[in-house]
């Protein structure tokens, strides 16, 4: 008979020195896992996480009932391995802003990490804070009142930047040291974009606060990678059978993991390099390799694979036509991935092996969400890079066309830009309108639009 997970006197419990926004499966399979692996003495850990959900309280409630403990299941063709994760000390709901501010004001807190998705930074097309965004304007109004008058922590804030700015204001008022705020989202140049989001909001509230953040807060850039499918009831049953514990919130992942970081940490950090994290002086080539090869092929398979009747990555990559389109996209991307140390051929081989892992059920529908933002970062840059060198970028154009075709077949668009994309989909020329929603420069290239339109026709006739 299985027993509930709970901390005991024998369970190592590190002090909280890390805060995370966006408590989900990837965070628990990646940042928490790396942190636990990096401890010099597992019996006396020094770095614990307090992690906050992105929206609702469900995951925090489930993990709180287990004192933050959960099982990480690593699946390969050889079977499962289960690891008890102990470095997540507190799981908090998104609206527990009082606790978040308390933690950010604490000088012992050294790093804030984030997985809030690309849309969670509320950025305009030029990479600056979108000051017209409704959630940004609402948070600005609330924070201005808090900082100018009451000083009371508000009951709600909608944006990650708003929560961080409030916490940094408390840290400044408390005389605390600098801190690192680090995005772990699949966004190119995510350190600079996080900086723009946080300082952009702070500048609307208090120039002196914005100046303090510029001088004392760093925004490291990261490239992260580990496939982490959504959990299901079967996973919980497997964990109970293999470990003897009932786990309300197990996580399943693949053996492969990667984390590349550029930037400094003024208040210190875990020895992540001891767990395999790579620190570099220039992260951009590694970001592009990951976004264009892994994420780019994921998006292509998510749309084209589903159109061909597949439900998982393993199924899609097993389809010769899908695999050929993936290889063509990689060929185009590889022409622009030439920096030293990228080892693109070996990286491609690893990706194929990972995609074919029979024990990882990575659902295409899960990957397909928010394509209106993802394809901006994945297929569009490849196509533009190819066209800038005199080639047509046909493989990347096919990926964009697959997204358009998939979207036009949806009764309900699942995207943070759903209203904008729905309007484009109902335009008299939906193909051109959806391309414009991705990238204005590409939409102004008549030949590029016609190439994508031709691919849409081909996919529809397939």
From TrEMBL:
Record has Lipid metabolism as a keyword: no
MF term (GO), any: oxidoreductase activity
Domain Mannitol dehydrogenase N-terminal: residue ranges: 17-273
Organism from which the protein derives: Corynebacterium suedekumii
Mannitol dehydrogenase C-terminal domain ranges (all copies): 282-457
Organism ancestry: Bacteria, Bacillati, Actinomycetota, Actinomycetes, Mycobacteriales
EC number, UniProt record: 1.1.1.-
Name under which the protein is recorded: Mannitol dehydrogenase family protein
Claim: Oxidoreductase is one of the keywords in the record: yes
The reaction(s) this protein catalyses: D-mannitol 1-phosphate + NAD(+) = beta-D-fructose 6-phosphate + NADH + H(+)
The protein's enzyme class: oxidoreductase
Keyword annotations of the record: Oxidoreductase
